[in-house]
């Protein structure tokens, strides 16, 4: 299959997934989901990169980024909207506030948060350092899940957190491509990038497991 054909198939699958999400988002005429918590890299980042020292002056802070839909740069790696924007629009829920732009009140977090950062990796700095590699952006999936834990502390009791999480959608990814880019740019070998696969899969699995924490009383209720 030609590369462009594979791209069209990927787009078709993605649109189908969005359609299923939108169809499943309504229950008896109401909205099933009240918010969305998203994790990832530039394919999901809706503004965190503008609030991080390493990226705030990057390309997404300047035109032509943002000029088609928002008419100004928003930190999105697009001239328009990202998939997460279309998902929240289809579900009729607020676009999650970028974590690094949010305050500390529960009101900033109850309807969801976007933890994604452009250039973020699935793996943390320790593994890269052990291989003589360095992240381009000092944010990993572990950082994002740590931010999620911090947010949970602002959402009230365990019971209240359960209610919020039960009505929230969790979007994890895309993430991992920057890990491979780091390996390819520094070592320029596919072999090095391939060895990262099991580590990246484990990192994503760990983040998905974290989603269940509020339902197992693993957050302190203080």
Describe this structure in words.
The chain has 222 residues and is α/β, with parallel strands linked by helices. The protein has two domains: 1-31; 33-216, no CATH class. The protein has eight helices and six strands, in the order H-E-E-E-H-E-E-H-H-H-E-H-H-H. Strands 4-5-3-6 form a four-stranded parallel sheet. Strand 1 and strand 2 (30-31) form a beta hairpin. Helix 1 (3-23) packs parallel to helix 2 (83-91). The protein is globular. The model is unreliable at 2-29 and 213-222 (pLDDT under 50).
Task: Give the helix/strand layout.
Elements: H1 3-23, E1 26-27, E2 30-31, E3 35-39, H2 83-91, E4 97-98, E5 112-114, H3 125-130, H4 141-152, H5 158-166, E6 168-172, H6 177-187, H7 190-194, H8 197-210
Parallel strand pairs: 3-5, 3-6, 4-5
Antiparallel strand pairs: 1-2
Helix pairs in contact: 1-2
Q: Please tally the β strands and state the result.
A: 6
Largest beta sheet: strand ordering: 4-5-3-6
Strand content: 5-15%
Could you give the distance between the termini? 55 Å
Helical fraction: 25-40%
The topology string of helices and strands comes to HEEEHEEHHHEHHH
Give a short account of the largest sheet.
4 strands, parallel
What is the count of DSSP helices, taking H or I runs of 4+ residues? 8
Mean of residue pLDDT values: 82
Give the overall shape: globular
Structural class: alpha/beta
């Amino acid at each position: 299959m030609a590369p462009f054909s594979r791209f069209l198939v990927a787009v078709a699958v993605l649109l189908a997934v969005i359609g299923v999400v939108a169809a499943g988002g309504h229950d008896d005429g109401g909205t099933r989901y009240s918010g969305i918590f998203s994790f990832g890299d530039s394919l999901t980042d809706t503004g965190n990169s503008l609030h991080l020292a390493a990226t705030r002056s990057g390309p997404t802070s300047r035109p032509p980024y943002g000029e088609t839909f928002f008419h100004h740069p928003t930190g999105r790696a697009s001239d328009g909207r990202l998939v997460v924007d279309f998902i929240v629009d289809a579900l009729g829920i607020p676009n999650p506030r970028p974590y690094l732009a949010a305050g500390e009140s529960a009101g900033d977090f109850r309807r969801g948060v976007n933890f994604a950062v452009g250039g973020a990796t699935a793996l943390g700095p320790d593994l890269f350092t052990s291989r003589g590699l360095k992240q381009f952006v000092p944010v990993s999936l572990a950082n994002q899940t740590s931010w999620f834990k911090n947010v949970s502390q602002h959402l009230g009791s365990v019971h209240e957190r359960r209610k919020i999480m039960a009505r929230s959608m969790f979007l994890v990814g895309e993430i991992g491509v920057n890990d491979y880019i780091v390996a390819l740019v520094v070592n320029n070998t596919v072999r090095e990038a391939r060895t990262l696969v099991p580590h990246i899969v484990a990192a994503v699995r760990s983040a998905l497991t974290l989603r269940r924490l509020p339902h197992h009383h693993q957050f302190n209720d203080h």
